[in-house]
Amino acid sequence: MGRVATKIKRRVEPGADDARPALLLDWYDRHRRRLPWRPPAGERADPYRVWLSEIMLQQTGVKTVGPYFEKFLARWPDVAALGRASLDDVLRMWAGLGYYSRARNLHACAVAVLRDHGGVFPETEEGLRKLPGIGPYTAAAIGAIAFDIRTMPVDGNIERVVSRLCAVEEPLPQAKPLIQELASTLLGPSRAGDEKSRAGDSAQALMDLGSSICTPKKPACALCPLNDDCAARLRGDQETFPRKAPKKAGTLRRGAAFVVTRGDELLVRTRADKGLLGGMTEVPGSDWLAGQDDKAALKQAPALTGVVRWHRKAGVVTHVFTHFPLELVVYTAKVAARTRAPQDMRWVPIATLAEEALPNVMRKAIAHGLGE
Ligand code: SF4
Predict the structure, then answer these.
(1) Is domain 3-240 classified as CATH 1.10.340.30?
(2) What are the residue boundaries of the HhH-GPD domain, all occurrences included (predicted)?
């Protein structure tokens, strides 16, 4: 028996017939959160809503996602409508949510569901995983929540609850397979002959427990339905879980952003489709490199007739991407009324910037550049 399996056996055996799954469902029936993408208790969830919310919730909190979810749903009420939308419109609507590859995949997935599945999501994890942007976690989440497939999607909340419940000493990310196995033991019992059961409710119960009770700091163990049987609580070191391998911070990259105004207009361009912030709008800028020096960055300023001198704004704009922190020096310039935009750039009214697909880092750079 492998190392992981031995550990699962050791942890699960004492409670193999334990009451945890039923306790969890009972708690969920009384305390489930009301969320815009959740149907009333007992009703089957709409796969489109589950999918849309799960993609939006990756790396983003419920509070931020709520208004975006409502906006998307009002504009594109089903996956077929989203599949017929233009990528530009989707990116524009997504602007501000960050991690823009999710928006591109969201659109590609809707197009694929419309084109290859007649606008209906496949009802198996395998079928779901073949769609753009749907990895094992999202497939399991849609499978469990929308189709009640007996599978457990493990997100950060569930990782925390399970690692505490079972005092998992292995650090993340190595502990993921073990946590996945342990989490699966918390799925609600199948009724005889019913493979589907209430898997979606079990998963959502754990998600809710992690976000409202088993929080990263100061978990409210007194209110937890699983507190009698929680290994970390019994030891008193709940907050130290999940264990994490030390994080390697990415190397700081530096660059320049050029905020150029022509009266009430701003000079912008569109980033290449592929790569970081692909397809998004930005002000012209230099490469973002580790050890980039200011002179080299300034040499990449856009060639504009009439700009004799760039004004360097005091301070820098900082932004942290998943893999690296970024520091941008911001230069500003004002040009005459009829100055033409350089190739592949365009002028947009500052008043309509909110409609542009501007990532947060660019919003910060523009605010810094236009500020007094
Ligand atoms: S008892 Fe406390 S630490 Fe254990 S699962 Fe419940 S809230 Fe989390």
Answers:
(1) yes
(2) 56-212
